[in-house]
Write a structure and sequence with these properties.
The protein has 602 residues and is mainly β. Helix content is 5%, strand content 34%. β17 and β18 form a beta hairpin. It comes from Alsobacter ponti.
């Protein structure tokens, strides 16, 4: 019998563990551990390292349950169970995958991590399978196929366990894949429900309980009517980002991807329900509300980014909100009960839109930049990856700030006609990306969602493609593409410590307590993902529009790093920990940490 949602939610309150990719159902990525503080973080040392053996993009979340760390490699998605204190291997599992999946993956063969519940580990594979494993032994319990690579479908996202179900979405919007969220029974792997992102209401699971806040989302079968005939069948809206869950409201929240193709001239209409945030009943999948952030998306501005669930006091009133750093460059604070946008403010350079009309919820288009067919539209900000992509932010209940890793890029964008052939690229645009105003390409910032303003920011040369971690010690962590893992003061942004890793960092940092009583911080190192393929794959960085345009923005990346596969785990020296603890493991193969660099809040 599977655990109930409140059991897993309760387990996530244990500060020693990290049982979900976002640590908790709200997706805060906040660790209650406080051994590591601004005054001692400079003493962090590598405690142990481990290679997952595949030098591609390392984006996996790291889970720690009952003293065991779980990590998933890029394709072939090998799973490792490690002693969280020593790094010793307990078991590993390699799924039997279809090698052809590598050829249809859009943006590297990444995996964003496993899910855990009730003694089982759940892993989604690139070739569209979900596998349930015994968490103690690695023995396969069931294996369910939920997609078809021949249609271009793959899976890169981390699943979420909710009330006896495993929720997982699909990737492949750049191949005309039709987006869907699938709920599988944890006990058997059988499909409990499927919610499509496009098509008729019966497919999208829109019924009598659907009560959207905005009029544009009200009507029958809008997932068909807002498209040219049959275009919704290859219309994208894939679900490859983050899921969060409110146990009190019993609602699951997530965003959908861009419409296909990128050439908006081929798909007149709002193209519902792409670039949309959904709230769904966890038991039935029925939609409660939906809010389309980018109707008739022009620029590949998916809205798969995380929706962090917070209770905030706004204008003197307690509000249950969802905070969503939009790919379109706006920081949304949304009432998670109704879908009303309370605020939407730019957090990076934005000229693709002229603001968000809170009465309608719709962005105001910049008609001067409208992509006419065959014409190069110059200096569009943000670029196609948005002001922020999948890399997850973190929230501290202590500082009441959101810590946001993101990019700072603009682009030239040219559309062209494209035909649909199953399993092949369906884009219809040529893109050239480059640094935004000021010449820097990334930023790590602290944002106040109540005051709707940036508190501090650290500019980085390259896009900041790692996730964020913040702790009760008031230290925030993130990684850079040029091989640095950094710690900063969560209140001021002051740089406190950095460590030169073996490859660029695009992983998700996390923290836990070992059996020796010490607080550990861990992150995967290994460049890749959409911005990093020029450094880990056979992509010529001189071709600026390669990698769907990202090569132009990261042409110099191979001079900083090559691919990697190493898990780094850090801790303070044993003698600096609580009195009476046993010494921890000695550092293994890792370079010495350099002194903190000169970069500071800007």
């Amino acid at each position: 019998m599977m655990a109930r949602a409140e059991d897993l939610a309760g387990r996530s309150s244990n500060p020693a563990e990290w049982v979900m990719p976002g640590r908790d159902y709200a997706g805060t990525r906040f660790s209650p551990l406080d051994q590591i503080k601004p005054e001692n973080v400079g003493g962090l040392q590598a405690a142990w390292t481990f290679s997952v053996g595949k030098e591609r993009g390392q984006e996996s979340a790291l889970l720690v349950v009952d003293g065991t760390m779980y990590v998933v490699s890029p394709f072939p998605n090998r799973v490792f169970a490690l002693d969280a204190t020593t790094g010793d291997l307990k078991w590993s599992y390699v799924p039997n995958q279809d090698l052809a999946a590598q050829g249809v993956a859009c943006c590297d063969v990444v995996n964003r991590g496993p899910a855990y519940d009730n003694g089982r580990l759940f892993v989604a594979t690139l070739d569209d399978h979900v596998v349930a494993l015994d968490a103690k032994t690695g023995q396969e319990i069931w294996n369910a196929k939920v997609g078809d690579i021949n249609l271009g479908e793959t899976i890169t996202m981390a699943p979420l366990a909710v009330k006896g179900k495993i929720l997982v979405g699909d990737s492949g919007g750049e191949l005309g894949v039709r987006g869907k969220l699938t709920a599988l029974d944890q006990a058997t792997g059988k499909v409990a429900w499927t919610a499509w992102s496009t098509g008729p209401d019966k497919d999208v699971l829109i019924g009598p309980d659907f009560k959207p806040f905005y009029d544009a989302a009200k009507g029958k079968d809008l997932g068909v009517a807002s498209w040219p005939p049959d275009a919704w069948k290859t219309g994208g809206g894939t679900i490859w980002g983050w899921l969060t869950y409110d146990p009190e409201l019993n609602l699951v929240y997530y965003g959908t991807g861009n419409p296909g193709p990128w050439n908006s001239n081929q798909r007149p209409g709002d193209n519902l329900w792409t670039s949309t945030i959904f709230a769904r009943d966890a038991d039935t999948g029925q939609a409660r509300w939906a809010y389309q952030l980018n109707p008739h998306d022009l620029w590949d501005h998916d809205e798969i980014n995380e929706g962090i669930l917070l209770d905030l006091t706004i204008d003197g009133k307690a509000r249950k909100v969802l905070v969503h750093p939009g790919r379109n460059g706006y920081m949304y604070v949304i009432d998670r009960q109704t879908g009303e946008a309370i605020s939407a403010d730019p957090y990076d350079t934005v000229n693709a839109y002229l603001g968000v009309d809170l009465k309608t919820g719709r962005p105001k288009p910049n008609e001067a930049l409208h992509p006419a067919l065959g014409k190069t539209i110059e200096n569009v900000c943000p670029a196609s990856p948005g002001a922020k992509d999948w890399q997850p932010a973190a929230w501290s209940p202590r500082t009441q700030l959101l810590y946001v890793p993101h990019q700072h890029l603009c682009m030239n964008f040219k559309t062209g006609e494209v035909g649909y052939i199953a399993g092949t690229p369906y884009v219809g645009a040529s893109v050239d990306m480059y640094a935004g105003p000021g010449g820097y390409r990334g930023e790590f910032m602290a944002w106040d969602p109540v005051k709707k303003s940036k508190v501090w920011a650290i500019k980085e040369n390259l896009p900041v493609w790692s996730g964020a971690l913040v702790t009760a010690g008031d230290v925030a962590f993130y990684g850079t593409m040029d091989r640095l893992f950094k710690a900063v003061d969560a209140r001021t942004g002051e740089p406190l410590w950095q460590f030169r890793t073996s490859s660029g960092v695009i992983g998700q940092p996390m923290s836990y307590k070992g059996a020796d009583g010490r607080q550990y911080v861990a992150v995967m190192s290994g460049i890749g993902g959409w911005p990093g393929v020029v450094a880990n794959a056979e992509v010529d960085p001189r071709v600026r529009n390669a990698a769907l345009g990202f090569a132009g923005a990261t042409q110099d990346l191979p001079t900083y790093t090559v691919g990697g596969s190493t898990l780094f785990v850090f801790a303070l020296p044993a003698q600096s920990g609580p009195a009476g603890q046993t010494p921890g493991p000695r550092p293994t193969s890792a370079p010495a940490a350099p002194a903190p660099g000169p970069a500071g809040p800007q």
